[in-house]
Amino acid sequence: MTSYDTPWDLVRHEDTDRPIACNRPHLLRQAAQWFSTNFKGHALYAVKANPSAWVLKELYANGITHFDAASMREVEAVARLCPNAEIAFMHPVKSRKAITSAYFDYGVRTFSFDCMEEAEKIFAATGEAEDLTLVLRVGVSNQGAEMPIDGKFGANATDTPDILRAVRPYAERLGMSFHPGSQCMDPYAWSVHCEHLSRLILEADVAVDIIDVGGGFPVAYPGKEPPPMHLFTDAIHEAFAAMPVAKDAELWCEPGRALVAESSSILTEVTLVRGNSVYINDGAFGTLYDAAHCDWTYPTRLIRNGSKPSKRLKAFRLFGPTCDSSDVVQGPIFLPEDIEEGDVIEIGMLGAYGVTMQTRFNGYGEARDLITNDTPWQSVFSKKQVLADADWYSTSKE
User: Fold this and answer.
1) 297: buried, middle or exposed (CB in 10 Å: 19+, 13-18, 0-12)?
2) Residue 41: other Cβ atoms inside 10 A
3) Structural domains in the chain, sorted by start
4) What is the pLDDT of residues 130-178, one digit of tens each?
5) Which residues pair with 175 in a beta bridge?
6) Strand ranges (DSSP E) for the chain?
7) Integer Cα distance of 172 and 128 in angstroms
8) Cα separation, 319 vs 280, whole angstroms
């Protein structure tokens, strides 16, 4: 990928007639190194957040050597790009063909499940293998999450003890997992869920080898600034230490958004301004899916070479390039009041669930990958943020 110092340098040299994924590998490295240093266990990258080749290779080179795959394409991508990586197939529902291929063709030994039917499918599809690591996903409340994802997966509390007892004899290693919801803002949600798992383990009276506390780790968006990151890992480590598991049990997590969100933004060109409506070449069927469909707020700034834009801001809504009337980000998105055709809008924090959400509807989509070396928004992993965290923690205790 071609590299530039800033987006202003980039737009002076590159055509912006289609969206550009403005990638910042230095921020990806920073996040990877933070988790490698501060999480006392294995951090499995949730590939679905951003399966780009450069992301997988950069994470692998910076200490993230375990991956949470949710499909065969993700398994294949990690196997191809990250030799010797540990791949876990963590989608709780998989086809028999996918399980067989993952086990026999790619050496996957770790599989998630949330019911006996899926466990039995895994046993059968692997030829009743004796080297399986099986991780039971347990349903938990997603209170405290900005984007709850509960309801589709997760064994209930009534069934969990029976499932653990039934599967234990056939699993070389047995694990339990949960997901607190995406962008979970409460560090102590993980403590509550670990206590819930503890009660289920005691009721089942079985040995558990792995506790997987899922993903959901938050990053900073406008209006969604999380508590200090160390509070999340501190709460998890304390809760894990109190659990009734074997002394050599492993602690896992599955960060997706937290690892990659800061590492990319999207540059999208303005094609028309009409009143408070701005038409751009990206949208709801491209990298702005969450902005349009989930009302997710992202940091924005105007990139203009030549004259400086007005300091006065105006509320706009953004229309994407397709002919579908639902291709709109209602906002309000605050941009300089003199925004005009040809300007470029940078939308930040789209390293997670940005490029991976692109479709080809109406012939649009497929952002180009380029690099810039700036740090436009404050990182929750930066040294500056660590100092701010210390101030926050001190003030919150007074």
Assistant:
1) middle
2) 20
3) 3-21+264-372 (2.40.37.10), 25-260 (3.20.20.10)
4) 999 999 999 999 988 888 888 899 999 999 999 999 999 999 999 999 9
5) 135, 210
6) 3-4, 20-23, 42-46, 66-69, 86-89, 110-113, 133-137, 145-147, 173-177, 182-184, 210-212, 250-253, 264-274, 277-280, 300-303, 313-319, 328-336, 344-347, 368-372
7) 12
8) 6
What is the mean pLDDT of the segment spanning 353-362? 92
The rounded distance, in Å, linking the Cα atoms of 359 and 7 is 25
**CA-to-CA distance for 101 and 69, rounded, in angstroms?**
13
316 neighbors 301 (Cβ within 8 angstroms) = no
* Residue (of 1, 66, 63, 78) closest to 28 by Cα position: 63
The type of residue at 303 is I
What is the CA angle 56-61-62, rounded to 5?
A: 100
Q: Encoding tokens for residue 43?
A: 């951090």
What residues form DSSP beta bridges with 238? none
Q: How crowded is the C-beta side of 124, counted as CA atoms within 13 Å?
A: 10
Phi-psi region of 11 (alpha: psi -120 to 50; beta: other; left: phi over 0): alpha
CB 51 within 8 A of CB 21: no
Closest-CA residue to 21 (of 357, 361, 292, 293): 357
Spatial separation of the C-alpha atoms in residues 109 and 127, rounded to whole Å: 12
CA distance 386 to 367: 33
Q: What's the pTM?
A: 0.93
First CA to last CA across the chain, in angstroms? 48
CA-CA distance, 331 to 298, in Å (whole number)? 10
Give the sign of the dihedral formed by CA 271, CA 276, CA 282, CA 284.
negative
The structure tokens listed for 397 are 């205790």
* Bridge partners (DSSP) listed for residue 347: 266, 300
Measured in residues, the chain has a length of 398
Q: Which two tokens stand for residue 199?
A: 């009660």
Q: Give pLDDT tens digits for 68-100.
A: 999 999 999 999 999 999 999 999 999 999 999
In the predicted structure, residue 353 carries a pLDDT above the cut 60: yes
User: Using CA atoms, how far apart are residues 5 and 204, in angstroms rounded to an integer?
Assistant: 57
Cβ-contact 178, 137 below 8 angstroms: yes
- Give the integer Cα–Cα distance in Å for 397 and 388: 14
- Can you tell me whether residue 293 is helix, strand or coil? helix
